[in-house]
Structure prediction request, 159 residues.
Amino acid sequence: MNPKAISLEEKKLRPVVDHLNDLLANYHVHYQKLRGCHWNVRGSHFFTLHAKFEELYNNAITTIDELAERILTLGKSPLSRYQDYLETAEIKEIDTIGMSDVDLVKAVVEDLEVLIALQRDLLEITDEANDEGSNDMVNAFMQFNEKQNWMLRAFLNKQ
Prediction:
């Protein structure tokens, strides 16, 4: 698609697309980490966390698709190789096998903090580009992550 078809300037969209791809890469690593947390959680909080991690990875995969489709809407291509995700993402892989339930939650909280920071930066960039569509989408993602961060921090008894 041509950005002009949706009344946006291509020159202003380059930073938007670059940052959307950065967010996409981070979500892919986060998604796989959540799958590992879901599969490998053990302990007295198994039932609660198993369901929570599933909720979070289902949300992440939907977010991944929306990010990729938004990048395409803006006339560019989304990253699509795991190598690119791993090289681009601030969020890093972890081995969830054998981790305690609390440490799994801590790892997810750390990811959420990275995602929220990336989303806040992206909101400024989309605002500068007058890209209200991307701005609204990213704002909704951020609000979800802020709420999840609060709930998981409450689980950890952290303020």
